[in-house]
């Protein structure tokens, strides 16, 4: 219980420190290291920022997000307006490949599809549309197109993990098959588990990452 109480304090402090999040609108529950966020926010961007904030808190073993996005009246847009704005911002984002990402909007819910070469491009597309007025949620169905051999992917992932989580890199095992990466082993913090996961996705040709790494406090 003491550990959960302290972890909750750290989560609340991280949310309060983040200017993109109205922490007064978010409830925090912690049990056995699993953080549950509840409440209502006025934009999908704020919800996204809250999720990213929790990923930076050491000791978090898992995250459940039960936050609803309730747009204020002056932020509501038609689906056609949102689709047009999303298409424009994707076209203006220099790191994204032209004409390979499609947008569908229904009830303010944006679905992205298509193919990219890198996971960071997939994430960049989601971030780009998440902050648009009128967006209630974003479903990212963009796929990462395989581009390199499994051995090359494995080596790139191993090098990235070594850079991002130096102390625990030796405890992480990486396997690759048909572009699917499986991570196993253990690290000491949730942040290092996230670092290993992000490192895996940063390799070209990765189409899926299964993160089986355990957090040993």
From TrEMBL:
What Pfam families would the database entry show?
A: BON
Indicate the segments forming the BON domain, all copies.
Answer: 3-71, 78-146, 149-217
Q: Does the keyword Signal apply?
A: yes
Secretion signal, residue range per the UniProt entry? none
The yes or no answer to whether the keyword Signal is present is yes
Q: Which PROSITE patterns match?
A: BON
Instruction: Identify the InterPro entries for this entry.
Output: BON_dom, Lipoprotein_DolP, Transpt-assoc_nodulatn_dom_bac
> SMART domains under this entry?
BON
Q: Which UniProt keywords apply?
A: Signal
User: Per its UniProt entry, which superkingdom is the organism in?
Assistant: Bacteria
Q: Which PANTHER family match?
A: BON DOMAIN-CONTAINING PROTEIN, OUTER MEMBRANE LIPOPROTEIN DOLP
User: What is the designated name of this protein?
Assistant: BON domain-containing protein
Q: Which organism is it from?
A: Cupriavidus respiraculi
For this protein's source organism, the top of the classification is: Bacteria, Pseudomonadati, Pseudomonadota, Betaproteobacteria, Burkholderiales
